[in-house]
């Protein structure tokens, strides 16, 4: 494989790890735990893995000899920078336990376990992927591990390979499934421990115990670099408004962090839109209002950040999508017979008044996306909606109305962008390289300590890595009961942007000034070599959450 100069140098990077993990460790049990809500239901569903204590790893002077162990690893869901380092940390950790230990990677996600598709990860494979982005060492997939027959099928290959522990690297859903699997294997005395690791660029897998999910740091830095570049271009030519949609699924953590890093003129936070019960029109007016104010100062340019999940958080859009989904599912056959050019009017006629008016007000392309792209479960795929184009178009229409009424005089030309895949496989920042490697090492310590149903946890990460705290959190502790696909299920609570939290408050305190001035910050590309103030900084979100700004 041909490598760039940076890849060759970066491969030699030794991730920084918590001081305790540099030596022999002992597991110290802390407080016994409860789930965040619905304790009785969660306890009855997880009788073998509920209420376990939080674990911390401390330095030990005792040299314990341990038998060799075979471990399996799975990458689940969307790519996130640092996944390979979790696997490298896990590999080095189990080899430290005993040099005859073996690591097996299941190919293309959880499906690899069920379909018995695997490869042994030897030292030369691991070395090839140290400090690299992507999940291509073993691939990832979105199959869910949720049924007993999948668990039993998986157990067949685990037994055959004499695997005693399985590490699942994934987001909230995958870790929920890891917990269900841990419980099942404990209940059936299968002899397999299951450990989870917090992954997702979306940043929505975090709580009191898990400070952040890996990948969020690198992805936000990559997006902030390109937003900064756009802002410099925008400020140089002074002729465009750039509408930039950012990945992140439902939560707006990525948009918020990028706003804190780059100071755009507008950033919409979906959670606030919902809390204020804003309509699509309100969102359009907010943006158009800022465009008009800047135009009064002769600034016919600017940037608008839009979180991927916005549409789902606009209460009226949510109602429209729900009725559309219902309507399309019930009238599938009839709808298919309607000519493409007639479909929009047909839908307008059939919906209830409020939804029909809203639907009719949407640009043609968006209306089409809402009706054409039902996913295999019959859901409208809101993430496919080009919100950046929708808003750019609607703001233009609003400004034209205001111009007609003599309320606005300015020029409004737009460029639209969507940043998502550009950041998911970037080479991990030092933060993610260190954090991920430490998560992998910690997972090996949890395995050595005989734990199951735990998520690997590394805390205090705004301090220098030496002072990071490694341990494990019982996954049941993060769970509550929620509705999923019409059923009430135990799941890990998803963390949306907290409007009372320090990151949002900081943004809210600055946004009016960012709207009118041109206070762009150009963070530049991620630096892998150089002074620690440049290379090792965590996200602003994390620093604010930990009161470290
Ligand atoms: P995960 O929750 O699996 O980490 O997803 C991350 C993500 O990048 C989301 O931000 C995005 O909405 C989604 O994956 C895109 O999905 P796909 O990988 O199927 O294109």
Structural features, described:
The protein folds into two domains: 5-30 and 69-215 and 428-484, Rossmann fold; 217-423 and 501-545, Phosphofructokinase domain (Rossmann fold), CATH 3.40.50. The chain is α/β, with parallel strands linked by helices and 549 residues long. The mean pLDDT is 94. Helix 3 (83-97) packs parallel to helix 20 (430-448) and helix 13 (315-330) packs across helix 16 (353-361). It contains 23 helices and 15 strands. A nine-stranded mixed beta sheet has the order 1-2-13-12-7-6-3-4-5, with helices on both faces. Strands 9-10-8-11 form a four-stranded parallel beta sheet, sandwiched between helices. Bound molecules: 1,6-di-O-phosphono-beta-D-fructofuranose. 1,6-di-O-phosphono-beta-D-fructofuranose is lined by residues 77-78, 80, 171, 200-202, 247-249, 308, 383, 424. 1,6-di-O-phosphono-beta-D-fructofuranose binds at residues 77-78, 80, 171, 200-202, 247-249, 308, 383, 424.
Topology:
Blueprint: H1 5-10, E1 24-32, H2 39-45, E2 53-60, E3 70-75, H3 83-97, E4 102-106, H4 110-114, E5 118-120, H5 123-129, H6 148-160, E6 163-170, H7 172-187, E7 193-198, H8 216-237, E8 241-246, H9 253-262, E9 266-267, H10 270-275, H11 280-296, E10 302-307, H12 310-313, H13 315-330, H14 332-337, H15 340-350, H16 353-361, H17 364-372, H18 387-404, E11 414-419, H19 421-424, H20 430-448, E12 454-459, E13 469-474, E14 479-484, E15 487-492, H21 502-516, H22 532-535, H23 540-545
Parallel strand pairs: 3-4, 3-6, 6-7, 7-12, 8-10, 8-11, 9-10
Antiparallel strand pairs: 1-2, 2-13, 4-5, 12-13, 14-15
Helix pairs in contact: 3-5, 3-20, 8-9, 9-21, 11-18, 13-16, 15-16
Bound molecules: 1,6-di-O-phosphono-beta-D-fructofuranose.
